[in-house]
Automatic annotation (TrEMBL):
<dbReference type="InterPro" id="IPR036895">
    <property type="entry name" value="Uracil-DNA_glycosylase-like_sf"/>
</dbReference>
<feature type="domain" description="Uracil-DNA glycosylase-like">
    <location>
        <begin position="10"/>
        <end position="164"/>
    </location>
</feature>
<protein>
    <submittedName>
        <fullName>G:T/U-mismatch repair DNA glycosylase</fullName>
    </submittedName>
</protein>
<dbReference type="InterPro" id="IPR005122">
    <property type="entry name" value="Uracil-DNA_glycosylase-like"/>
</dbReference>
<dbReference type="InterPro" id="IPR026353">
    <property type="entry name" value="Hypoxan-DNA_Glyclase"/>
</dbReference>
Length: 164
């Protein structure tokens, strides 16, 4: 694969974090917008807005602060990878570099619950991240908020209620 090596975002986290939501890697639109879940068709912001009572159409920094005020942090499993397009299936498996979760969990020890935004994030984490010293953390996979993951109306929101 001749795609450019892409770099993800730093974690959106502060000292109040008790919950971490992990995606796989930002979409093309997210990277271009420099925003987590920057594709307006992604259900992430409408779902979390509903769960935590904020306007999903508010400016990005307002939405991030709203999540953080509820103890929710965002990050992705991958720090770097090569991918053409936005599909998880297009990620070059030879290019995967995971984020440093040991450092994150050491720096933010109140994180006790990790939710994977979809199957790919869960699979990548389990395959690439060493899970030492994480006995205190509960891990759960949720349905992807991606527009590519089609489920019946309301099913994603119902499953995502686990984070609130």
């Amino acid at each position: 694969m001749s795609a450019t090596l892409l770099h993800g975002f730093p974690p959106a986290v502060d000292h109040r974090a008790t919950v971490l939501i992990l995606g796989s890697f930002p979409s093309v639109q997210s990277l271009a917008n420099h925003q987590y879940y920057g594709n307006p068709r992604n259900a992430f912001w409408p779902i979390t807005g509903e769960l935590f009572g904020f306007d999903a159409d508010a400016p990005y920094d307002v939405r991030l602060r709203a999540l953080q005020s509820h103890g929710v942090a965002l990050w992705d499993v991958l720090h770097k990878c090569r991918r053409i397009g936005s599909a998880d299936s297009a990620i070059d498996p030879k290019s995967l570099v995971a984020n440093d979760f040991g450092e994150l969990f050491a720096s933010y020890p109140a994180i006790a619950r990790v939710y994977f935004n979809g199957a790919k994030a869960c699979e990548l984490y389990r395959r690439l991240v060493e899970q030492r010293d994480t006995d205190r953390i509960d891990f759960q996979r949720l349905p992807s908020t991606s527009p590519a993951h089609a489920v019946r109306p309301g099913a994603k929101l119902a499953a995502w209620r686990a984070i609130s």
